[in-house]
Amino acid sequence: MVPNLQLFYQGKWDTAKCVPDSIIMHVGDTIEILSNDKYKSVLHRGLVNKERVRISWAVFCKPPEEKTILKPLIETVFEIEPPLFPPRTFQQHVQHKINLREDEPGCSLLIT
Question: Residue 97: which residues within 8 A CB-CB, separation 6 or more?
């Protein structure tokens, strides 16, 4: 198995373990918002290896940007657990993330 995914966790890049016959799913910001932060979106990057072949399959899904309002599902909000994300359109969320990029550690392509 060829390690190919790193996650930024506790201030450093960690390589995800390769588990035979498995799928790693990054649920992204949408699930983090819908779950009111129960499922976390993480900064991640892919690794490239000059000597060994690996297979990655990236699939991106997004709702209609101007029509879809992202906010925590009502089932995830309680008096003791108020909403952690303000309602905003998908387009507003993407713009917010772009604005935050300046403060986050940069992603890079690594060749191992």
Answer: 29
Q: Are 70 and 87 in contact (CB under 8 A)?
A: yes
Beta strands 44-48 and 5-9 are antiparallel
Beta strand spans in the chain (E) = 5-9, 12-15, 44-48, 69-70, 88-89, 110-111
Annotated catalytic residue: which of 45, 54, 88, 101? 54
Active-site residue, 45 included:
no
Contact of 71 with 52, CB cutoff 8 Å: no
Predicted model pTM: 0.67
Strand partners, 110: 47
Identify the bridge partners of residue 15 per DSSP, sorted by sequence position.
Answer: 6
Q: What is the pLDDT of residues 59-82, one digit of tens each?
A: 777 778 788 899 999 999 999 999
Which residues make Cβ contacts (< 8 Å) with residue 73, sequence separation at least 6?
34, 35, 36
